[in-house]
Amino acid sequence: MFGKKIKLFNLFGFTVHIDLSWLFIAVLITWSLAKGVFPNEYKNLSNTVHWYMGAAGALGLFLSIIFHELSHSLVARRFGLPIEGITLFIFGGVAEMHDEPETPKAEFFMAIAGPIASILIGVLFLGVRFVGETSGWSTPVTGVVNYLAIINFILAGFNLLPAFPLDGGRVLRSGLWKWKNNIKKATRQASAIGKGFGTLLIVLGVLQFIAGGIVGGIWWFLIGMFMRNASQMSYQQLLVRKELEGESVERFMNDDPVTISPDTTIRDLVENYVYRHHFKMYPVVEDHKLVGCISTKEIKSLDRDRWDNTTVSDIVSQCSADNTIDKNTDAMQAMSIMHKSDNSRLMVTEGDKLVGIIALKDLLRFLSLKVDLEGEEND
After folding, report:
1. Which run of H or E residues covers position 324?
2. What confidence score (pLDDT) does residue 98 get?
3. Which H or E element spans position 97?
4. Average pLDDT for residues 10-18, to the nearest whole number?
């Protein structure tokens, strides 16, 4: 879902990141508030003050979204579900959850925690505005506080829409899950509703664009596209988890991988292995023991005029949790490692011996064939 992420800080044991796309939305929100919302509401204030108010409003929204996602994360921790962190991106924020809740109850409380948090912070800002107005605070301050109260209520209302994977859609899934006692069926139905809402927003965006609301129309269209894609991706991710859970990597690995000797020259490696087998990573084996791996990344960092005089042992990468996995490890964990490390192939070991290679394409091929033969309806 994310591109380049920047770590901001740690909060209650969770790492808060910001996706670079959020910088775009932060500028857009600041501009919209400074040139649209606040000038319409507070015409007697200067342009400079409007810009300060816009920046403060964007910062307040930033903190509100963190509070919203933090509530999800804290409840998830209460139910024993690991959350890797919180990331703000172009359409809001997300608590990075790589496993599904174990029960409908856990799903419900995790999902509803976000909107409740937004409502509470909205009420808090209303109280602050009341105190500020009765205490004679300046108009710019009370204006920003009033905006933050309203935007948190809007944030809660939007997230309560029964459109998966929004919070309301997850509440809906928890109910369907409880009723049908089947998370896959519940996710499929909630996802279909989410795609329907996304399609509706796309249509509304097109109509608003035609009617002259160009900026608003574009945003409704983009949000609709995002919702459709997120609904579909969330269901596909669940299918992957359910099909790979309990399956060891040994089932999917290639048990006769192409290996490299440490004394192989880089020239020989490129000409007779890379250009022949077309892999980006090769295990390095000596006396039947795995000593590391070498990839095109290491080769690219070496000057071509050194290829004939440099051997694999000179630039081999050591085995690590990012490129090596035990043969009895769950296949879903292998996919998780591939995702985090950006490696599409992992070396499979038994002790200090190489027993195979597991590739992302092999896992995806298995999933595609299984869905093709058995269908998504097979629960």
Report:
1. strand 324-326
2. 63
3. strand 92-97
4. 77
CA–CA gap between residue 125 and residue 45 (Å, rounded)? 22
d(CA 352, CA 289): 6
Query: Which value, in Å, is the radius of gyration of the alpha carbons in the chain?
Result: 26
Q: Are strands 92-97 and 14-19 parallel, antiparallel or unpaired?
A: unpaired
Instruction: Annotate 247-285 with DSSP letters as a single string.
Output: -BGGGTSBSS---B-TT-BHHHHIIIIIHHH--SEEEEE
pLDDT band at 247 (very low <50, low <70, confident <90, very high): confident
For residue 5, name the pLDDT band (cuts at 50, 70, 90).
confident
Q: Architecture of domain 249-373 in CATH? A: Roll (3.10)
Sort strands 353-359 and 281-286 into parallel, antiparallel or unpaired. Answer: unpaired
CA–CA dist 174, 190 (Å, integer)? 9
Report residue 2's pLDDT band, with 50, 70 and 90 as the boundaries: very low
d(CA 214, CA 202): 13
pLDDT (mean) for 220-229: 83
| pTM, two decimal places | 0.72
Mean pLDDT confidence for 180-206? 88
The domain ranges of the chain are 5-244, 249-373
- Tell me the two tokens of residue 305: 């005029």
Backbone angles phi, psi at 16, to 5 degrees: -100, 120
Q: Are the beta carbons of 126 and 149 closer than 8 angstroms?
A: yes
pLDDT digits (tens, 9 = 90+) for 340-375: 777 888 999 998 899 999 988 888 888 777 766 655
Query: Interhelix angle for 104-135 vs 167-180, to 10°?
Result: 150
Bond prior to 39 in cis (omega within 30° of 0): no
